[in-house]
Amino acid sequence: MDVFKESIAQRDKFRSAANKLLNHCFVLKKKEDTRNDYIFILQHREMFEEYFDLLGYELRINENSDVAGLVNYNGTGRYRLRKIETILLLILRLLYIEKKRELSTNDNIMVFSEDIHEKYQMLKIESKPNIDKTTFRDSIRLFKRFNIISNVDTDVTQSDSRIIIYPSVLFAVPGENINNMIEEISDRLNKYAGGGVDDEETDQDQAD
Fold first, then answer.
1. Nearest-CA neighbor of 163 among 140, 133, 146, 142?
2. Element (H, E) at 117
3. How many CB atoms lie within 10 A of CB 65?
4. Element (H, E) at 144
């Protein structure tokens, strides 16, 4: 860490990147406002690992997906999702995997709000067959805050509103290897199919 004592600019870059990891869960190379932070973290990986180890966090970097994130050693410092948010996060993850398989390039994965609603309606949840605008808007804002998605269009409640899903969605919920992900996510979504959805927090579906 002594190298940062000699350069205010380097220290400021370290502080900025560290705060983004702590406040937004994920830092991505694909996202314009975190690209430089991701590259800086990668270049100074050992220093970030040393710093966050003191705070009780493990720095994890997936260079295949260009995603950096933190995991708390003690399982604390995690955001508990409501059930509806968990369902939407799983749907986003499923859509990401499906779209990724369709693309032959490393382009951004973009879906429409309508795609998310259609996946949700397929669950046929009796107590909440559709997602109301407020819940949908708040959930999109939450996942955007954690650098899991970003919205291209301002009004996400419109059916043709475009939403970019980042590869960080693969790490927001623990999962198996890519070949088993669709089956695993479908099984988890089936837990909620036909049942009720309330504001109860989920124990295992959390974003680090």
1. 140
2. helix 113-121
3. 17
4. helix 133-145
